[in-house]
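ok so I'm stuck.
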Amino acid sequence: MDGHFSDYLLIGAGMAGLACATELSRNGASVTVLDKGRGPGGRMATRRVEIGAASIGFDHGAQYFTVRDPAFRHAVAEWEAAGVAARWPVAGEDAWVGTPGMNAPIRAMAETLDVRWGVRAERLNREDGRWRVDTGSGALTAARVLVAVPAEQAAVLLAEVAPDLAALAAGVKSAPCWAAMAAFSHPLPIAADTLRSESGPLSWAARNSAKPGRSGAETWVIHASPERSHELLGAAKEDAARALLADFFAAFGIAPAAPLHCDAHRWLYALPGAIGGEGAHFDPALGIGVAGDWLRAPRVEAAWLSGRALAERVVP
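replied:
not stuck anymore, here's the structure
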């Protein structure tokens, strides 16, 4: 990997990072994107598991997204035309999901870009007017570096090289969220496909198998409230899964049913306390910038708008 040079090196291949990279590429720049994850998704992740002879998907991160901004609406229309997004009226009049999984729009965006999965940016260094990014598998250089990761991670990465941006990120605190994923051999006696709660141990539950483009076994994704997630913060995922499943049955008032599969995932930086404002920041003297939903609002659309805003700030 040593010796690779790009106009822009973008750290983070979530919605903000890929929106930024897409816009820069459209303007003719060479862009390399790094992401520590094994594949597309970030907080729009879809996890696939094998149950018997079937492959089952769980949208265990963001459950849907809404569309308000005209520019984002245009992007979503393109995703719909490509078959990677569809409306989901059950969640609201203007609710959309990726199809056949929430990560489908991310995957479609990444396919048009140079994205290196499973590569963690470990250290940034400014050398001779260029940026050097050290990773576990070598180093890359770029004229400019753009960081689109959760605020807490950005604060650590930028601390030595861009203290003002690091301080901005350090001022954001994110709430965690435990997510449980459960599959059952038969439909549960629950009429509604979603549960949204402002109180109690759960904030959300959805019949994942009822979303557009899904099929197969009865599957549910269960999100703990921030308070419940804090209670279970240090729990093993098996214990968290059992606790959330019990909360789920209690919330719907039905008898517990043995799942075919039950797992859990802890989103440590699930809901950023967004600082709002400009939506993106770029230091032209250093050639370094930041984007993310934490700079605007904790929504998928906000992440996309932040990434686009950063691209507009750095394009000459």
